[in-house]
């Protein structure tokens, strides 16, 4: 195998493949990237068995068919140090050789025939939504996906395809985030995408792509790239029962004013209390060792004061992902979960319970 390529082109692809490599065991073949030259095209693959990426490069200046593997982290380390010009990459016995001008590097190879094949299931279900809509929907709920929860289904995002809408759902047990799209033609179904895959999808795909899935895999592909992830095999919590059927109070409040007030009182401590009265909203830190307090004068037309106590991060996560000038905040009572909404996106937050 041999090919000549512009350094920046291959560096970008190898860099995008780093999250798909086995990190803990450098002796594993899944710590390697697979390279194959076939008819003037270069195919690169990386997988840790749970998630994988295949990319194709057509911009080869000169090539000889063949295949190889190389440790992906070491290859990227070399590419970053090279100059922005052409490089030669070729296999030589059990080594991959990288050359540029008078510089030469040799990295050991494994048998490319032993590299695991990426998922290619048959009879996939097509998810008929645009890539842009998918990215926008999962981006809103990503902060609410849990990390390393023993209930492994919470370490991913649920795609819940209902008859008239598609819900994208995540919870870390302190909050529930839901974004939704109209369902035009997809059959009812649901599956859970791991958090790592959710994050990588947002980095990789900017243009339209084909989205398909079965009971165990999700595959997203376009002309140059194919991504796959194993799905989480588990039952997501019944999130519908957490969504309040009615709200006693529902206000539309200016987003920028909320963000400014929350940030003012959380410079030292993230837990805050927000008190709502007929003519103002008071924000104060729950830090026992210091005092931070600010106020918004606004007419809410309510008879009795009530409050919510919360980790401000949950509010700021929501507000940072909204696009309108105003957001809706709904409550029933102090110390009960409250509701935040902006168009096709809402979050329900569990409060910090304070003694009344």
From TrEMBL:
Q: Where is the DNA polymerase III beta sliding clamp central domain positioned along the sequence?
A: 133-238
Which ranges carry the DNA polymerase III beta sliding clamp C-terminal domain? Answer: 241-344
Q: Identify the domain of life.
A: Bacteria
| Gene Ontology BP terms | DNA strand elongation involved in DNA replication
GO CC terms, sorted? cytoplasm; DNA polymerase III complex
Primary localization class, coarse: cytoplasm
In the record, what terms sit under GO molecular function? Answer: 3'-5' exonuclease activity; DNA binding; DNA-directed DNA polymerase activity
Residues annotated as domain DNA polymerase III beta sliding clamp N-terminal = 1-118
* SUPFAM superfamilies found in the cross-reference section: DNA clamp
Which Pfam family is one of this chain's hits?
Answer: DNA_pol3_beta_3
Among InterPro entries, the record links this protein to:
DNA_clamp_sf, DNA_polIII_beta, DNA_polIII_beta_C, DNA_polIII_beta_cen, DNA_polIII_beta_N
Q: Which UniProt keywords apply?
A: Cytoplasm, DNA replication, DNA-binding, DNA-directed DNA polymerase, Nucleotidyltransferase, Transferase
Annotated compartments: Cytoplasm
As for what it does, the entry says:
Confers DNA tethering and processivity to DNA polymerases and other proteins. Acts as a clamp, forming a ring around DNA (a reaction catalyzed by the clamp-loading complex) which diffuses in an ATP-independent manner freely and bidirectionally along dsDNA. Initially characterized for its ability to contact the catalytic subunit of DNA polymerase III (Pol III), a complex, multichain enzyme responsible for most of the replicative synthesis in bacteria; Pol III exhibits 3'-5' exonuclease proofreading activity.
Protein family per UniProt:
Belongs to the beta sliding clamp family.
* Matches recorded under PANTHER family: BETA SLIDING CLAMP, DNA POLYMERASE III SUBUNIT BETA
Known partners and oligomeric status: Forms a ring-shaped head-to-tail homodimer around DNA.
The entry's protein name is Beta sliding clamp
Q: Source taxonomy lineage?
A: Bacteria, Pseudomonadati, Campylobacterota, Epsilonproteobacteria, Campylobacterales
């Amino acid at each position: 195998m041999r090919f000549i390529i512009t350094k920046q082109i291959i560096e970008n692809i190898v860099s995008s493949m780093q999250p798909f490599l086995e990190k803990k065991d450098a002796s594993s073949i899944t710590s390697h990237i697979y390279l194959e030259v076939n008819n003037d095209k270069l195919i690169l693959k990386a997988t840790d068995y749970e998630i994988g990426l295949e990319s194709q490069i057509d911009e080869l200046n000169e090539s000889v068919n063949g295949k190889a593997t190389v440790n992906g982290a070491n290859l990227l380390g070399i590419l970053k140090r090279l100059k922005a010009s052409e490089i030669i990459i070729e296999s030589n016995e059990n080594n991959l050789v990288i050359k540029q001008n008078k510089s030469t590097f040799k990295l050991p190879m494994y048998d490319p025939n032993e590299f695991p094949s990426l998922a290619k299931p048959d009879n996939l279900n097509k998810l008929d939504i645009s890539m842009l809509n998918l990215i926008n929907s999962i981006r809103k709920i990503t902060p609410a996906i849990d990390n390393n929860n023993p209930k492994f289904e919470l370490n991913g995002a649920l795609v819940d395809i209902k008859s008239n809408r598609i819900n994208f759902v995540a919870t870390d047990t302190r909050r529930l985030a839901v974004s939704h799209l109209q369902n035009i033609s997809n059959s009812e179904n649901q599956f859970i995408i791991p958090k790592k895959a959710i994050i990588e999808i947002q980095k990789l795909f900017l243009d339209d792509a084909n989205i398909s899935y079965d009971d165990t895999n999700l595959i997203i592909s376009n002309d140059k790239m194919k991504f796959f992830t194993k799905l989480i095999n588990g039952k997501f919590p019944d999130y519908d029962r957490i969504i309040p059927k009615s709200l006693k109070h529902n206000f539309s409040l200016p987003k920028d004013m909320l963000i400014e007030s929350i940030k003012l009182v959380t410079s030292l401590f993230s837990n805050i209390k927000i008190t709502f009265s007929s003519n103002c909203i008071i924000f104060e830190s729950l830090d026992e060792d210091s005092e931070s307090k600010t106020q918004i004068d606004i007419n809410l037309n309510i008879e009795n004061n009530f409050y919510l106590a919360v980790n401000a991060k949950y509010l700021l996560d929501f507000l940072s992902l909204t696009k309108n000038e105003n957001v809706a905040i709904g409550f029933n009572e102090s110390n009960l979960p409250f509701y935040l909404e902006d168009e096709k996106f809402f979050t329900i937050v569990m409060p910090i319970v304070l003694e009344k």
